[in-house]
Give the backbone structure.
Amino acid sequence: MPKLYFRIALLLLLTGCASTKKAKYDDYVFHTKSEQNAYIKTYDKALKLWDVPYTEENIKTSYGKVHVILAGPKNGKDVVLLHGMDASSTMWYPNIKALAKDHRIYAIDFIMEPGKSTLTASPLSKEQIVLCYNEIFNYYRLKNFDIVGASRGGWIATLLATQKMNSIDKIVLLSPAQTFKYIDKPGKTTSALMLKLFPSEKKFTKTLTSFSTHPEKISPVYKRQFYLANKYAKSNSSMLKMQPFSDDELRSISNPVLVLIGDHDVINGDDSLIRAKEYLTHGKIKTVKDAGHFLTIDQSKITNDAIIEFLK
């Protein structure tokens, strides 16, 4: 791990621990009920950007309440969507119309991040993350389903796929974070870490510019929600547990895997592409031109078309 990134990540960890102790509101993510309510209002507004019929459900798990958004035909093949860090399931607004046309969608809010899921247990280990998602899959009786994960969601999708007993069919990884290698350009991601520590509109704008080649495409409605996720949510150490997968773990994935990475992605560079090509037995690796880490927004049509073609 690059020294700069390690130091900032360590600072993030310490700050997260301190903020948790000082919190007046007993919630893993938010400091106060009013901050949570303000965030949820922006979440609901951003969810309307989906522009497709959907329903929202809360699933009780051993670790807390998990929020799931369902869309698409009930007789379509099941597809699970795992969002990026602090992005929540609303992030799929540029993609959901294409994905939900012929597929039954289950978009899950990660239980340890801003969203509508609520963690009632201690921070989850990798093993507990797997158990939590398996409880959700079992609740919906999902078998032979496809999974699409972006950024941290891609890391979680890979974690689930490395388990010997899983019911996953095809996997799509969209700029997966710390899955093949550590962050490629830690200097350019410093703004995101500083935003978590000292949130401001200026740092937020700088972060979007670093992670997106076309930040102007980001809906102002969604942008507001994403900003409040960074402003109000407590910093946490869960990102430090996201270690790149070993050669053997990647080799163990026998599923067909599509990996899409933007050519300006600050998280994944050439080394990530090389490892993905070398160790994913049935991997298909593509670089999306003129796209950053937020390729679902930067090049939504190209990304949507690639996903749909792969899932056929």
